[in-house]
Every structure is written in structure tokens, then in C-alpha cells.
Amino acid sequence: MLSSSFLNYFLSLYISFFIVINSTIIKNNEDFLKNINVQEELHIQDYILINDTNNININSSSISLIGDFHDSTLQFSNNISFLEKCEKIEIKNITIYGNLNFHNNKKIKFENVIFNGIFIINNDILESKSSLEILNSSFFLSNQKSGFEINHYNVNINNSNFYGNNIYNLYLLKFIGSEENINIIRINNSTISGNYFNSGIQTLSLSYTYNVFNYTKFINNYSESRGGSIFLYHTYDTSIYDITFKNTTAFEYGHALSIYSDMSYTTNTNIKNVKHYGNLYKNNFITEGTFLNSYGENLLTINNYEGSNISTGNVMSFEGDPKVTLSNFTINNIYLKNKGAVIKTYNPKKKGASIEFNSSYLNDIVQNYDLYTPMLLYILSGSIKINR
Hints:
By secondary structure, the chain is mainly beta. The protein has a domain at 168-387: Pectate Lyase C-like (3 Solenoid), CATH 2.160.20. It has helices at 2-21, 29-35, and strands at residues 23-26, 41-44, 47-50, 56-58, 62-66, 73-82, 88-103, 107-117, 119-122, 131-135, 138-141, 148-151, 154-158, 161-163, 173-176, 183-188, 191-193, 204-207, 209-223, 230-233, 237-250, 257-260, 268-277, 292-296, 299-311, 316-320, 323-337, 343-346, 354-358, 361-368, 377-379, 383-387. Helix 2 links the parallel strand 1 and strand 2 (41-44).
């Protein structure tokens, strides 16, 4: 018994000693610059302003920047770059003002972070399956002409928020994968808001990825091209559950969602439980898909959609040869413009769209067009089946 107690005591002392020698309390600018490539764990206390105007490169194999959350702030006017040798990065319980660059790092984690700036996370070693985790954090784009960009990483975002800036024609959050090494993007219980100023491009843009979104809100987003909130470009499989769109607009295609693929493969998108709140303001432009637009040979299933104040153009447009199942739609106050309709199919590549529309309720539809045009279905190609 005595030897066992002594062993436990010795192990406790050893662990405490190990923690002390591998972590440093950072109280000022000098402490930070002196220890950033020496110690693996830096504890940021109070507010620290980094005066060095040169870029700070981090080469250590592992680094943790940890604060006391409410009292810890790190601000710098230059960039901090985590180079390839830095395999593991943890940023926790801290507020940061500045720009972060990540290059070929294997594991990146943000937890309880308030971040004001931009980050670019890039991985050129595609087979490494690098990962990014963002937990309980808020990210605010600074007024620079760049958004948050993540290339070739598996990503898990949970209980976090992303906000845009006042700069026009800018994406908020972009994920890029590759055909050879497909990445998985998971977003859960989060809010993505472009503040309606930026996002002349899409608010959330994804390409060559598998995607899973749960309990996520898209608010005040705008795009001048495809997908006011979400643009899926050559994605492989996407599952979206319990999602909310509010005041989201695209000038050309898909106010809330746009799906695009060429004819070389088929994408698969499953969506369940959608709440879509449009804008009472009637826009002068005409959009292909006030809710969504699909281009290509896509498989699409949507179940339980609630929409209100859905205006401008048609509600859903399908270009090419998709196979679509729409079930349990409830839409109130629909404003259609020009040759708009609730469902439109056009420009077939082969046989055109195949659509099944099940058990839905549409109320208060207004058609604004001088000539005769269909209100519910505008079918230029393919087929549609309506079931009670």
C-alpha cells in the first residue's frame, strides 16, 4: 500500500513538472515573441498587443494558445503563420484580432474563441486527411477583401457563428476539396450570417465534398450569382436536416440554395425540415429558384418545407436532368414574376427532369405577368407527378 501511494505521488509530481516546463505564462509582447517557437503551450493573460510588424512564423511541432476566455485577448497587425512542421494546433478560451494562415498542418482546433480577422487554411498534402475542428466559437470577418477559406481539410463545426463584413462581392466561408481526395464537412447547431452586405459571391461555398448540416441557420445573405446562402458545386453527397433560411437572396440562381454539377457524375442531396422566411420587399429582378435551383444530373429529395413570403421569379427551378422528390411542402404568400411558376423545368440534356410532388399545400399565390403563363408548373422538359 505504501509503495502504491508513493508511486502515485511520484507520478503526480512528474506530471506537474512536465506541465510546468512545457507551458509558459505570457504577460506581454516580449514574452510572446520569445516563447512562440520554444514552448508548446502558451497561456495568454489579459490583453496582449504584438508590436512586431513582420509576419510571425511558427515552426514548433505542436502549439497551444490558451487564455482565460473573458480576460484574454491577443491582437496583432501582422500575420501569424503556422508552417508545415507545426502538426498540431490548439487555440482555446481567447479573443483574437488579426489574420491566421495555416499550411499543411495535420490537426487544428478552435474552442471557445472569438476571432476577428481572416484565416486561410490550406493543405497541399491531400492524402494526409488533415482535420479542422471549431467548437463554441464566433468568427467575424475583418474589413479585408478575403473571406474564411478552408482547402482540403475534413471539418467539424459545432455550436459556432460566422459573420460577414461590409465589403461587397465577397464570400464568407468557402470549402474546397478535390476529386481525388474527398473531404467531409460537418456543420451543426451554428449560424452563418453575411450581414447582407458582402457575399456578392456565395455565403457558404462547397466543392468536391461530402456535407452534413444539422440545426443550422443562414441569415441575411446575398449573392449576385448562384446560391444566396449555400452553393454546392460538384459535391458528392449532402445531407441537410433542420435548417433555417431568413432574408437570403441570389440575383441569378437559388435565393437559399443552388446545386451545380456537370454531366460526368451525379450528385445526391437529401434535405429534411426546412424553414424559409423570405422578404416582404418585392425585388425588381427575376431569379431562377426563389428557394432553390438545380443544374445537372442531380438526385434531390426534400421533405418538410415551410416557406413564407417567397417572392421574385419561380420557387424551384430544375435545369438539365435531375430526379427530384418533393414532399410535405407548405408555402404561404408566393409572389411570382414574369414566366415564373412554383416549379419550372428547362434545358434538358437528355430526357429532362423527373419530379414527384407529394402532399403539399400552397396558399396566396400572385402571378405578375402581362401575358398568359402557368402559375404552378412550367414544364419545358421532362415529367412531373403530383400525389395527394
